[in-house]
Automatic annotation (TrEMBL):
It is found in: Periplasm. This is Transcriptional regulator. Pfam families: MucB_RseB, MucB_RseB_C. Residues 1-17 form the signal peptide. One of its GO terms (biological process) is regulation of polysaccharide biosynthetic process. Residues 24-196 form the MucB/RseB N-terminal domain.
Length: 323
């Protein structure tokens, strides 16, 4: 009789510890979200993948009327600046005319969900607060966003104990293999808006454009019949892919899926070839997959394992066939 009682006590203790741990992790993630939206900070970081490091500079602040301001710059190669005033994001690149888009976020190495509501991730991920360590000379809390299945990757976040801001991020497989890492090299938080952001606040951004290469269509011809749990389509259309053959005006169907943290792009079009063995390459956590089966070419891009990309590609069907 004593053994079952002891077992139940241990089980109750473990369940309570897990629940408390999950609550603590979620509180840290919510703090991260608030800090990324409310604090004035200047930071630099490097994205490390495939034994290469890509440096970035990032400024964020709150201007007049509580408008968020951001400057995001890639430091290697051709200079690229991304500017944000509230819901307007501008792209400044030397090889293109400057332009702006309506968007609440700058798309970059830091996932947009880090500024949003982490609750939507609980279908596909578990949150675990692990412990403290030292990153960038600061006390950091390690929080793991752990995938519940083998179809996606896990994320480890080191958060500054003082400000809640991100100091380090790692993307890992279920087996613990490190695929990609973001390491912050400088962080400064201030009460005042930086000079660069104060100047951005007074700057007139380039004209807002619409994506004119999309084709209006009532319904796509193809559909993805399988995606990992938690993924849903957030955008779909027909458009033209850039190619060396400028005379090729064949429309490609595009579907964008997201589980809140990871996005997967799926491209489908008819091909003159009947079959081509799968071709794939990985860039850190990002998988690029392409294959042709039964005259249908499927391309998939996303931060997912190869097996997930293959399974998605194999699930492509004609829409009418599902009725």
């Amino acid at each position: 009789m004593k053994l079952p009682v002891l077992f139940l006590l241990l089980l109750s203790f473990n369940v309570s510890a897990i629940n408390a741990d999950t609550k603590s992790a979620k509180e840290w993630l919510e703090r991260l979200s608030q800090s990324l939206k409310q604090l004035n900070f200047t930071t630099s970081f490097v994205v490390v993948k495939n034994n290469q490091a890509e440096p970035y500079h990032w400024l964020h602040g709150i201007g007049n009327d509580d408008q968020e301001l951001e400057i995001f710059t890639r430091l290697n190669g051709s200079r690229r600046d991304f500017l944000r005033q509230g819901n307007i994001v501008s792209y400044i690149e030397p090889e293109h005319e400057p332009y702006s888009l309506i968007s609440p976020d700058i798309r970059g190495p830091i996932p947009a969900i880090f500024r949003g509501n982490f609750t939507e991730l609980e279908v596909s991920y578990r949150f675990i607060s692990v412990g403290r360590s030292r990153v960038l000379g600061r006390v950091a809390q390690l929080v793991r966003i752990v995938a519940k299945d083998d179809y996606r990757f896990s994320y480890w976040l080191w958060l500054d104990q003082k400000t809640g801001l991100l100091l380090k991020m790692a993307i890992l497989t279920r087996q613990g293999q490190l695929l990609e890492q973001v390491q912050f090299t400088h962080l400064e938080v201030s009460k005042q808006l930086s000079d660069n952001l104060a100047q951005l606040q007074l700057t007139e951004l380039p004209d807002i454009i619409s994506l004119t290469n999309e084709i209006t269509t009532k319904e796509l011809a193809w559909q993805v019949s399988w995606m990992p749990q938690g993924f849903s389509v957030i955008k779909s259309n027909q458009h033209y892919l850039n190619s060396y053959n400028r005379n090729d005006v064949k429309a490609v169907e595009f579907m964008l899926f997201s589980d809140g943290l990871t996005e997967v792009s799926v491209y489908v079009n008819l091909s003159k070839e009947k079959f081509r063995d799968p071709e794939y390459a990985s860039d850190g956590a990002t998988m690029v997959f392409n294959q042709i089966v039964r005259g249908i070419e499927v391309g998939i891009v996303g931060d997912i394992p190869l097996a997930t990309a293959q399974k998605i590609a194999e699930s492509i069907i004609v829409k009418s066939a599902s009725k």
